[in-house]
Amino acid sequence: MTDTLLEPGLAAYAAHSADSRGRACPEPAPNYRTEFQRDRDRIVHSTAFRRLAYKTQVFVNHEGDLYRTRVTHSLEVAQIARSIARVLQLNESLTEAICLAHDLGHTPFGHAGQDALNECMREFGGFEHNLQSLRVVDELEERYAEFPGLNLTFECREGILKHCSLNNARQLGTIGERFIRREQPGLEAQLANLADEIAYNNHDVDDGVRSGLVTVEQLQEVPLFQCQYEKVRQRYPQVADRRLVHETIRRMINRVVTDLIDTSTAQLQAAAPADIAAVRGMSQPLLGFSDAVREEHLELKRFLRERLYRHYRVLRMTSKARRVIRELFDAFMNESALMPDEHNQAAQRLDTHNAEAGKARAVADYIAGMTDRYAILEHRRIFNPAERT
Ligand code: MG
């Protein structure tokens, strides 16, 4: 089956399967799917993807069943990005693959866990979750006889590696080159990045209100919320609080998505890139918000930082999380034989190549792969004499 049949209606500047820069380990083309559909399917079947169900963004996993986990977050990102991809005639399957994979390298306990692990790894090359996502799909997944990792296409890997320090970029070969040359990734990668931002800002409002940590009164300070909230209240004066909040959030998402589509369409028309190579060669991303909506979005972010992420109850969770990660890291660095055999073996293997830094990387891989509840349990097993080992 040809790719044009499976990928109808793509713009010239979209990623086309037939023009993919390929996989690290060459494989025969799939029969009834495009290369990017195959990427997406491999991601959905991966172990790291299933673990996202028990990893969190802001709230620790056991705090409540109704909050977003990283898997529901990834699905929301994919939903938003796919809708936009169709309108802009971008490759929907590649967009979806990048969205579903974008958080695979996240540690337990959200941002607090990532910061803590980065701190632990300071002398050993640091820890970046984007780079870890790439490491998961390139090396750590064990599902195929012929190659390590998932052997994804270049375009998908390019989208997963959203940010990267220059130091790390220099060691990554072709996938790191764009950071050195200050080039852009393909439009599907740019879109996944923006959809991520839209999804988490809006669902953190939802989870924040649900948890009682932020109130609707406080949210009135935020123009993006306030404007939609007033419209809904005037139009539906009788509607109950929960529906009022959800209808407001729905409209907030609609506002930023519509703006993103309109602004990006105009920018694409003006720049008229001939193909994905032209997109990559641009000095600026071609997808984005208008200045007004970008500012509204930034104000929402600032609000969430002040009122939600720095709420004392969230800080208590993150403080506990940091301690758990630090103590696990130190324990395994001092005595790598405390880790399950496969991780201890990885530590010894990497240690011979790269001394202490190799061992530290294996410990970081083990910790980063943990879910919130597994990390808490493992911490108890290591430190609590009354716990079964
Ligand atoms: Mg995300």
How would you describe the overall organization of this protein?
The chain has 389 residues and is mainly alpha-helical. It folds into 2 domains: 3-313, Hypothetical protein af1432 (Orthogonal Bundle); 314-383, no CATH class. The protein contains 19 helices and no strands. The chain has helices at residues 3-6, 35-44, 47-51, 70-87, 92-101, 110-120, 129-140, 154-160, 166-171, 177-181, 187-211, 216-219, 223-235, 241-271, 276-280, 291-309, 312-334, 341-369, 372-383. It is globular. The N and C termini lie far apart (53 Å). The mean pLDDT is 93. Magnesium ion is lined by residues 73, 102-103, 196, 200.
Q: How many strands in all? A: 0
In total, the number of domains comes to 2
CATH topology of the largest domain: Hypothetical protein af1432
SS strand fraction: under 5%
CATH superfamily of the largest domain, by name, is Hypothetical protein af1432
**What is the CATH first-level class name of the largest domain?**
Mainly Alpha
Portion of residues within helices: 55-70%
The hetero molecules present are:
magnesium ion
Helix/sheet category:
mainly alpha
The CATH architecture term of the largest domain is: Orthogonal Bundle
Total helices: the number is 19
Query: What is the average of the pLDDT values?
Result: 93
Q: Low-confidence segments, ≥5 residues, pLDDT <50?
A: none
* Rg over C-alpha atoms, rounded to the nearest angstrom: 22 Å
Shape label: globular
Span between termini: 53 Å
Main sheet, how many strands, which sense, barrel?
none
- The topology string of helices and strands comes to HHHHHHHHHHHHHHHHHHH
